Amino acid sequence: MAERLQKILSGRGVSSRRAAEDMIAAGRVTVNGKTARIGDSADPERDDIRIDGAPLPPEEGRRYIMLNKPRGYVTTMSDERGRKTVAELVSDCPERLYPVGRLDMDSDGLLIMTNDGELAHRLAHPSHGIEKTYRVMVSGDIKSALPVLKAPMELDGGEVRAKRVEIARSGQTPGTDAALMITVAEGRNRQVRRMCETAGLRVARLTRVSEGALRLGGLKPGGWRELTPEEIKSLAKQ
Fold it and tell me: Which phi and psi angles does 28 have, rounded to 5°?
């Protein structure tokens, strides 16, 4: 059955769907000897699909893991500036996995990684509104900031609003005035940090502690584990 090329490439674990579109746009993908274009479709069972001249890899078993990303790592598989990447943390995994969404270099916590390109695309797309909760260590005028954080605000020309903002009463560290639990669903770039800045707060540390039904729990920084069948089902439903 014919499908969009970027869907085929991501489904075979070649890359994320977004990266697959970049590969097609760069002329690196051919179908039956002809250079493919964005929007082209093909049937992987009948057509000769190649990337940089190499045949499309066969389908492989799906793998889904949760990584506790430490600070100082970028959420990419390679980095032209030589920074540490999450790929290094899962190098002992036999499959080539890709991160679902982003977690900026200065943040840590829960990051899903998989070779299931279709599920990754659905989870990362903001239209699905999957809730993500962050534990944010902040300093500043908390009393004045809370109403601002709970109200709608504009980022990147669109309105965003936290689903929940709560003060965590434990785990505060020197140099911070509060530990906030902030839940969002839009997934804008560095959204929680920018929301805090808009509210006049300085972020000392930001940790993603949950995504949908997944909880980071006691997973050590830099460590990863397989998702359970129940967790995978919960992601698919979302």
Answer: -90, -10
CB atoms inside a 10 Å sphere around CB 71 = 15
35-73: pLDDT as tens digits: 999 999 999 889 999 999 988 877 767 889 999 999 999
CA dist 121 → 18, 37, 117, 126 (Å): 8, 20, 6, 10
Q: What is the CATH number of domain 131-211?
A: 3.30.70.1560
Does domain 3-55 fall into CATH 3.10.290.10?
Answer: yes
Residue 48, CB half-sphere, CA atoms under 13 Å: how many? Answer: 7
Name the residue ranges covered by the structural domains of the chain: 3-55, 64-126+214-237, 131-211
pTM of the model: 0.76
Question: Any idea which residues carry the catalytic annotation?
Answer: 104
**CB-CB contact of 201 with 146 (8 Å):** no
